[in-house]
Design brief:
The chain is α/β, with parallel strands linked by helices. The chain is 40% helix and 21% strand. The strands form 3 sheets. Strands 3-2-1-4-7-13 form a 6-stranded mixed sheet. Strands 10-9-8-11-12 form a 5-stranded mixed sheet, with helices on both faces. A two-stranded antiparallel sheet has the order 5-6.
Amino acid sequence: MDRSLYIGVMSGTSLDSVDVVLCKIDTETCELLHSLEYPMPSSLKASVLEMINGSHPLVAVGELDHRLGILFADAVLALLECNQIDPKEVKAIGLHGQTLWHAPQATHPFTMQWGDPNIITVKTGIPVVADFRRKDVALGGQGAPFAPAFHKFIFKHIGSATAVVNIGGMANITLLDDLLIGYDTGCGNVLMDSWIRQHKGIDFDKDGEWAREGKVDTLLLDAMMSDPYFSQNYPKSTGREKFNEAWLEEKLTRRKGAVCSFVLEEDVQRTLLECTALSISHEVLKFEREHLILCGGGAKNHFLVERIKHLLPSVEVTIAQNADDLEAMLFAWLAYKRLHKEKVELKAVTGAKTNTILGAIYE
């Protein structure tokens, strides 16, 4: 049995860091051997956010692609050096890239993940598999989420009536049934991170400590939860192009129009956390799950997990092993699938016309 080493690289919507993992993979298992959380420089994070939120000349677009390529290459090299791994031992790197825009339902559908894979393969000497999402979009799919296919593989020993929810910048759910169902439930950490960065100057609300100081503003929460995305049927996917500062400002404006009173900053943070917890719990309840497995960065937010458990009193809620590394492991696994020319089971998740081989190989 071919059991080889693969690296997965993931930079999510939250822009908190680059997650890099080294996995040993075969037809039955994906074993995590080493992981590294590589910091994203604040200047590069600012450039990504500026690119997402504004209009920029083509030269800036090209330069950002190059800078992200260098960042991802440096993150891989750091993982190899820390664990004294010879690059020749690694079959391939699976690269997600940094999502700048995701518009699968536009007049001309597209999804954009940046970070030049040519730079990464040159700097590391390892083949890179990248550009996973666009073929799914070309086949009429959402191009996201991809996590459900990996969840089905990695949690195959777990019975039915189980849901897996990955809470990153956005949150997505997987229903572990015979027919694989998965979709983005809505915002995960992205708005909470944005709000605390704006008002406290820090990147995230550790354990939900600031949110815990506030109270849920029911008018604001109602404005948030009335967004059509939450009632939209799957397949569906979303990102910063939907859940962003402008979205939150519109909800705050609507709330202020309903009642003339000041909203405390910590109350907004608390309400954002409740929005994430509610949007997740609603989907779990819809499918009458008995078990819920949480993963992703949001699974480390103690207050968020506490609220999800409170909203799901009859559901057993657990945190996945290697919860914060599963998304990066997904892309190591997708690289394995690409090198072995295996189709990825996603059409029931994304709405693509067929399951297909995903990713382009950069030797």
